[in-house]
């Protein structure tokens, strides 16, 4: 907020109030003569208006200067006290100058009366009290808006940093698991290992590009998960199956990048796979902008070690986006994860934009 110069509110207040102040002072100076003597309108009104401009400029410099010196909301009491100590004497001097000037030069025959001076000072005090209160309230409101905007910016930056940290967990997690798979294939089947490595290079380029974006469309994620599934089939063959049933109207919707890859990877990691009893992964959309990832439970005799990166990572991303609806359900036969799909024009768009930048 620039306050070195008069604000729009200060200009508007002066232009709106000065004619009224001008009339009141001339009425104090000349009483009923203002309705009979045209010279008062031709000489006195422009003269007081000119003095008023100088006085208003001085008030503006004092008021805005104090806002620069003591800009914080917590300094309001100190700022108001100093303002009163500066502006009241300045106002009194301005009003006294008008009456003594008119008396000394006998402008339009005026002679000073103590009652006139008291009334003039009262008008000046009332006007200053009204408008300085208005200006101070406007200043405090602007400072409050700035503090709210700064808080929102800080929260967005914090969210962006946390989101970036969550994204950085995905690449190493995925890469290390693929290297473990590749290491096993090298000893078991070199030809499969070569195919797997070629597919891995394609998938990883896609992974890097989309993981940098933070958010991806459902269409993009589905294309990626089909490529990723080829890696799984290279390793496990018909022991794992993937079924997709997606309503095309949801394809432009958004979700955190690589969510499907993390979920599918977890499914394969924590379930037993065999051709006789294949692990079946179903990915489908439902009403209410939901994407569901479901698999049949086939417990391993020996549980795979888990650092809980997958589910916690996705849950944390939705929490940062302040979107409810992420859910994990489990019964004796199935394990299900529900992902809210995000339309581009929802309330999370500003945060998504800041994350993507």
Task: Walk me through this protein's architecture.
The chain has helices at residues 8-30, 38-69, 76-104, 114-188, 190-213, 218-236, 259-270, 309-320, 349-356, and strands spanning 215-217, 240-245, 254-256, 279-286, 290-296, 327-330, 334-340. The chain contains 9 helices and 7 strands; from the N terminus they run αααααβαββαββαββα. It is rod-shaped and about 115 Å long. The strands form 2 sheets. A 5-stranded mixed sheet has the order 2-4-5-7-6, with helices on one face. A two-stranded antiparallel sheet has the order 1-3. It has 2 domains: 8-149, no CATH class; 189-356, Histidine kinase-like ATPase, C-terminal domain (Heat Shock Protein 90). The two termini are 26 Å apart. It has 357 residues and is of the alpha+beta class. 24% of the residues are buried.
């Amino acid at each position: 907020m620039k306050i070195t110069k008069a604000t729009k509110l200060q200009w508007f207040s002066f232009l709106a109030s000065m004619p009224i102040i001008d009339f009141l002072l001339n009425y104090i100076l000349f009483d009923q003569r203002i309705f009979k003597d045209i010279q008062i309108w031709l000489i006195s009104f422009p003269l007081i208006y000119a003095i008023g401009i100088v006085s208003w400029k001085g008030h503006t410099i004092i008021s805005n200067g104090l806002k620069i010196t003591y800009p914080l909301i917590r300094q309001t009491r100190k700022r108001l006290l100093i303002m009163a100590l500066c502006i009241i004497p300045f106002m009194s001097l301005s009003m006294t100058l008008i009456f003594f000037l008119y008396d000394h030069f006998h402008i339009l025959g005026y002679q000073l009366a103590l009652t006139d001076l008291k009334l003039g000072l009262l008008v000046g005090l009332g006007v200053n009290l009204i408008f300085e209160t208005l200006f101070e309230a406007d200043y405090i409101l602007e400072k409050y808006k700035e503090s709210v905007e700064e808080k929102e910016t800080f929260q967005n930056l914090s969210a962006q940093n946390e989101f970036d940290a969550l994204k950085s967990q995905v690449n190493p997690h995925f890469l290390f698991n693929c290297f473990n798979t590749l290491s096993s294939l090298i000893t078991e089947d070199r030809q499969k290992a070569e195919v797997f490595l070629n597919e891995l290079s394609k998938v990883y380029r896609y992974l890097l590009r989309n993981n940098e974006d933070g958010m991806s469309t459902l269409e993009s994620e589905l294309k990626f998960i089909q490529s990723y599934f080829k890696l799984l089939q290279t390793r496990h063959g018909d022991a794992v199956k993937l079924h997709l049933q997606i309503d095309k109207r949801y394809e432009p919707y958004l979700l955190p990048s690589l969510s499907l890859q993390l979920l599918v990877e977890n499914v394969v990691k924590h379930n037993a796979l065999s051709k006789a009893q294949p692990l079946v992964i179903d990915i489908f959309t439902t009403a209410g902008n939901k994407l569901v990832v479901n698999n049949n439970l086939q417990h391993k005799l020996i549980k795979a070690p888990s650092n809980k990166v997958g589910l916690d990572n996705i849950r944390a991303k939705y929490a940062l986006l302040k979107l409810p609806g992420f859910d994990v359900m489990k019964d004796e036969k199935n394990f299900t994860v529900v992902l809210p799909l995000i339309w581009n024009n929802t309330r999370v768009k500003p945060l998504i934009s800041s994350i993507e930048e």
